[in-house]
Amino acid sequence: MNGDLTPALIETDVWTDDMVAAAGIPIVDVPFVTIGGGIGSFVTFDTLRIYGVPAAAIASLGPQAVPWSSYEHLVRVSQIPRRERIRSDSASTPDNIWGFPSYAVREAFGARSLSGFIKPLWNVAVEPIFANYYTPRAGQVFESLEREHQRVGYAQSVRIGDVRMVRRRSGGGYFTILTPPPGSSPTKRVAFRSTYAHIAVGYPGLNMLPELQEFRERYRDPSKVVNAYESHEHIYQSLRRRPGTVMIRGSGIVASRVLQRLIDDRDKYRLRTTILHLFRTYVAEPHGSSIFKRRKGKDGWAYQGFNYPKSVWGGQLKAKMRKLEGEDRKQAYKEMGGTNTPVRKNWQEQLRRGRTEGWYHVMAGTARDLRPTRDGLTTTVVPDPSQPLPYPPPTHPFDVTVNYVIDCTGLEADIREHRLLADLLDHTGAGRNPLGRLDVDRTFELIGTRSGTGRIYASGTATLGGYFPGVDTFLGLQIAAREIADDLAAHGFCRRMGPMRSVHQWWLWARNQRI
Amino acid sequence: MLPTLNGRIQTRVLGLGIIGFFVALVITPVLPTGDLSLTQSYRVTLSVLLAVVLVGVPWELLYHGLQQFRWEKDWPTLFGLLTAVSEGIVVWLLVHYTTIVVPEDLRPSLTAYLIQFIITWLAFWLVVNGPMRVLFHRWRFAGGRFI
Fold first, then answer.
1. A259/A251 Cα distance (integer angstroms)
2. Strands, E, within A84-237: which ranges?
């Protein structure tokens, strides 16, 4: 097919215009490309549009037709349908860069009853002291994103396809190679020539626990051992037909969600599902290195409202992390990171009932040698006697038999497993931060990738480990977008937004006026 | 709120100062200040506002200290409302029992003081928990700093 990559292009780090033209790849000129096409691309696009950049100056490249489709898929299979609440703050509004009005305020004013009006407002007024943190329904987030994506004309900038690589251009700027879907383009590849590029490709990939991966490979059975981020509805369906035992691995938000689904079904359909929950680290009480760093914990779980302490998104911890380098930063991530989940009243009640009635069991340690047996799957649990279980822990390995294993550990793959990110490391000068992911500066510029006046920026989960920890969240993506927009303003690409423009733009947002 | 110490003090001085000034501007003519002239009434309300702002700075140091015991290093919305009680009492004691804030012959009634203090505090609390983010869109990510 015409217009494909040549060996010369693949092997050359810095491309000339002639090289691309000689390969027959058509060149599209656009000042700014954002790569990924998900929520990270969208909030960056939205912020730049509000700063005054025309839609025609931005191309959003990625496989998604609408920016929330991949995110919605992941939250749905990990058991958050549109009516359920996600783990996100009221003022983390990816459809509104100001966070005002927050989701709670909007929910209140959209309510059809007095109690529906008061409840969310009361919640945000007294949280987290007298109520769990308010969190919006997934549906509210998607609907508001849809409205904003129409308002700012996002669709006209979307170019569907897979981005294969971003290479520096001789003379400054970059070439981004897009592979459009077969049949949609006369050439196999299209090159976007831009001064700026932004990378927000999301998770490089999800890994399973090694012993679970080994089982799937050896027995070629992907149905009984699943990753919670894969569609696994068949497990819930099967448990409705026949009672069974499920082993849960992991103790984060996804484990909480999957447990809720299992127990909701158990209650609704009067099932006899038994749950074995294997913790690697069992948290029995509040923990931390000093009285100033004590996180709540109980019943195995570390409790925290959001995936990092709240002030990483704007307060003390944000200011502190901005100054830390290398090992110090790594240590700070270690202290405030770790798997955790929010406290929610209904989850507490469900698990309390499970413990009392004897159908929810906790264990601590690791498991090995997972194998199919006549009754299902048998695995050998190697207990960790140092973990503070609520009962005298077993000291010797023992076998347990279950019907299904759901991996909720959310292990993320190395960034190199993503082809575009690997190419950036190998050919475009990108490096790794202390946590091994893409090394970005405080402005979210991808360190080491400058090309003349050109800049590459990156945001989202691939950059975790940088000067700003909350990257992998709605608000984190917006904070990154603002830093990027301010840096672009410093380079003269757009104007820095001051109070007057901010108020005017907010007013246009409030009136849903197209910009 | 996710304040840093610097941000707390800036928000207190600039935020409360400016919002409180507009509140005083509007409500002073209708406050029950007895037989004080309008100029004298403004002198009282603006002096009370200045006291709330300045006495607030040491309060912010205390709040910052207390915040260190919180894992999240945040300052819940509710705290921002409840601290009105302790701060209101301290400023009232200064107004009523000393001449630091206003001279003896200008001391306001408790009613007039409470009306001004409560409206000022509520306006400030509501603004910093929402509309402030529209005007100063970087403020919430900078720990409450304006500069």
1. 10
2. 158-160, 162-169, 174-179, 190-194, 196-199, 206-207, 225-227
Which residues have a Cβ under 8 Å from the Cβ of B89 and sit 6 or more positions away? none
Which residue does chain A place closest to B137, by CA atoms?
A: A98
Cα-based distances in Å from A43 to A74, A162, A404, A485, B69: 19, 20, 38, 11, 34
* Chain B interface test: which of A106, A316, A484 (most B C-beta within 10 Å): A316
Selection from A71, A43, A37, A45 nearest residue A162 by Cα: A37
* Overall average pLDDT of the B25-52 stretch: 95
B126 Cβ partners below 8 Å, 6+ apart? none
pLDDT the model gives residue B107: 94
Comparing CB atoms, the residue among B1, B68, B133 nearest residue A100 is B133
Cβ(A189)–Cβ(A4) under 8 Å?
A: yes
Q: Map A348-364 to HEC letters.
A: HHHHHHHHHHCCEEEEE
- Whether B133 sits inside 8 A of A304 (CB atoms) is no
Name which of A208, A96, A101, A201 is nearest A471 in CA terms: A201
Query: Residues 6 or more apart from A168 whose CB is under 8 A from it?
Result: A13, A14, A15, A174, A428, A429, A449, A451, A454
pLDDT digits (tens, 9 = 90+) for A144-195: 999 999 999 999 999 999 999 999 999 999 999 999 999 999 999 999 999 9
A297 contacts A285 by C-beta, under 8 angstroms: yes
Q: What is the pLDDT of residues B81-140, one digit of tens each?
A: 999 999 999 999 999 999 999 999 999 999 999 999 999 999 999 999 999 999 999 999
d(CA A211, CA A208): 8
Q: Where are the alpha helices (DSSP H) in A269-418?
A: 316-321, 326-336, 345-357
DSSP A112: S
A458: pLDDT strictly greater than 70: yes
User: Residue A1 — very low, low, confident or very high, per pLDDT cuts 50/70/90?
Assistant: low
ipTM of the complex: 0.94
Q: Which of A97, A100, A295, A304 to mutate to probe the B interface, most B CBs <10 Å?
A: A100
Judge: B72–A309 Cβ closer than 8 Å, yes or no: yes
